[in-house]
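User: What would this chain look like folded?
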Amino acid sequence: MKYLDEFRDPVAARVLVDRITRRATRTWTIMEVCGGQTHSIIRNGIDQLLGDAVEFIHGPGCPVCVTPLEMIDRALEIAARENVIFCSFGDMLRVPGSREDLFSVRARGGDVRIVYSPLDATQIAADNPDRDVVFFGVGFETTAPANAMSVVHAQRLGLKNFYLLVSHVLVPPAMTAILSSPTNRVQGFLGAGHVCTVMGTSEYGPLVEKFGIPIVVSGFEPLDLLEGVRQLVDLLEDGRAELRNAYPRAVSDQGNVVARETLKDVFVVTDRPWRGIGVIPKSGWRLSPRYAEFDAELRFGVGDMQVQESAECHSGEVLQGLLKPNECPAFGTSCTPRTPLGATMVSSEGACAAYYQFRRLNLTDLTSARA
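Assistant: Here's the prediction, encoded as structure tokens.
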């Protein structure tokens, strides 16, 4: 904890809060793209501490939450088949599909296993050559390198029974979609630091230039976030659209060059549907033709599955920053962590889960805290 405590110092946090609130001459609307940042903001009460200086809009930065409903149903279809071992990180097992979740498939006897690395799944495939092993590859640019390496590793081992169900999405196209929307309210972005550790910051400069909006790359601890907000407020007050890196201990301009080369080799860019949002052009990855033999959608013939979203769930509006979680009519009533309507209430990075966990159960919680 030694190296985390210095970024949670309450005295230093108060100094930053005072600087932000004194500098702000109006309420600035800032979107944090990452679900981990959302949880840190709500858990530490940063939105409440900043009072009327900043309104946080919670963006579509939870990879579990934006995994489209049809992709969940594809996973369910594959996992329920005989002779299949379906591997996933634990956070995907309770994400609801159109009828059930992966826990339900496992309860009925499906061989659904929680793994801690995609390489665990390749080892399972090596140990079970007579069974098909599928890993559910979900996430942003952060988790993509390890998933890409599992395919490279499987090819090197000559595995013929390992497959990847790919649901990777990219952050900059989502930001472009938000900024291009006629309902956009975002005036500045906190960039996701972990994404930039892999991809660098180069993709954000064109967004700054095109939309005339400041972007500050930030970390996840309270002081990281407050410093990112401080720099954003300074830029907004001065009317300057700039790209800044407020997370230099982890992020460089180039990112992880080796990881980026691996991603370029294994994946190709494709249009991707985002749960509750719709298709965003060139916003995801799929396996390149060189690795098509490892594509679970092709192997099991589930690529054409289409389903309808629940009309009762407003997670799409939450993910676009159009609605706060506690403004949803179902929040805390028909939709809870035990009975979720959407992934934003299930995921450990979901905005709805953060509001529920940290007791932001109604709109008066925030307004009374600010008063």
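The domain at 64-169+255-300 is CATH 3.40.50.11740 (Rossmann fold). If you want, I can go into more detail on any region.
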